Amino acid sequence: MSKxxxxxxxxxxxxxxxxxxxxxxxxxxxxxxxxxxxxxxxxKDLMLQKNRLELSYLANEQILKLKSLHxxxxxxxxxxxxxxxxxxxxxxxxxxxxxTFTNKNIEFDEIIYMQNDKIYLIKEPESYYLGxxxxxxxxxxxxxxxxxxxxxxxxxxxxxxxxxxxxGYFLLRxxxxxxxxxxxxLDRFIKDTTHELNTPVNAIMANIEMIDTSKLDEKLAKKIKxxxxxxxTVSNLYQDLTYLTLAHKIISxxxxxxxxxxxxxxxxxxxxFCDSKKLTVSFTCRHKSSLHVDRKKLTKLxxxxxxxxxxxxxxxxxxxITLGQNYFEIYDSGRGIKKEKVEExxxxxxxxxxxxxxxxIGLSIVKMIAxxxxxxxxxxxxxxxxxxxxxxx
Amino acid sequence: MVxxxxxxxxxxxxxxxxxxxxxxxxxxxxxxxxxxFFYRYLLKYSSEENLKSALVSYLKNxxxxxxxxxxxxxxxxxxxxxxxxxxxxxxxxxxxxxxxYKIFGKLE
Lengths: 393, 108
Hints:
The complex is a heterodimer.
Chain A: H1 5-8, H2 11-71, E1 86-90, E2 96-99, E3 112-115, E4 118-123, E5 134-140, H3 143-210, H4 218-246, E6 254-258, H5 259-269, H6 271-276, E7 280-285, E8 290-294, H7 295-311, E9 318-323, E10 327-332, H8 362-372, E11 376-382, E12 386-392
Parallel strand pairs in A: 7-9
Antiparallel strand pairs in A: 1-2, 1-5, 3-4, 4-5, 6-8, 9-10, 10-12, 11-12
Chain B: H1 2-27, H2 34-45, H3 48-60, H4 71-77, H5 87-101
Helix pairs in contact in B: 1-5, 2-3, 3-5
């Protein structure tokens, strides 16, 4: 038996695991994004505060020049410019008086801010020289600063993310421990039971085959028949359990199988079971089909579907098997499956009806085999009326 | 079309007349030129709307509290008399005053 999760975990548990992991990753990314944004804003504020002092000094110089221009406006008309910055002046209604830069979206409520790699400082002179209520200075931000912040964010982001993934892995293992133990216990139990079943079942079946029922009286022959059915049921169960626990070790010997022949053979094999429940079995071959598969595996698939059709059928019910060009389907007039339970039917240990014996592994095996040969299995059912399983390719 | 142009020219000519006859005339007699008053208003009121509104308010009802005159000039010339212009003409005169001395479009 493999200790790997593939064979030990059920579909629903895998789904839960995936959801948990996805949620965990999403949570980690959200947390990192928030931390990253806080760090970026903190660094940006720090950088802006460093620039604020120098920009304020430059703004004061510019205000002095505006004052001088205001006094001498009748003689001078040249707006004061500097190589260190670009600037603009606005009146109290935020109407541009003059500007040496192109950006028209100024955030007048801020004191210093960054926009498109540029830093803006807003200064209000004590008097409105030339009508200036707002003096705006623009300088190019240092690209090295942004690069350094991104590098830090990337390095620390990756480290924290990896740490969180490792932490998540251990957390997951901790959460899964009881679940894994329960599954392992069940698998081990099945394996042990299987092993113990092998020898007695073979002995019973071999001895029954050796008995010539024609020489026995009717009453005894009937009893032997019942023993035969019982032994075959146990044998089927044994084979299913063996397949389930050793599936990954079974090597496929693929060959062309005529489905018509195989289905007829299986109908004959299950004849005794059908008789015991007084079922009528009909087989319609609409089209001869063959599949390139392993004979034992395909037999197992058909057997499981057939035995389900018998097991869950009512006394004097019917089974209709149809073979088409690229499908075959098994219909039974049994108790049907609830709509919401149909999806769960392929999971190991899932059973539609607890009142009937079994481990609930049949359809799980069907699914495994179907997956190996890319066969599509579809269940349609009407509760308390009928069930139809269609295998197509 | 010719009539329309004539009417517009006449209107412009008339409003120019209001400012020149009613404002410039008196201010010429003062040692401080009329443009200096504009820049003082600008220094205090910044925007076109605020400046015009303050100027109209002062001209209609001149008071010590509203004046932008410096102490020395105030003592020498005192508060001016109320304007004799009606609201429409006062607005026209103030508009022209703004147009002549505004900063917009004059900086290089």
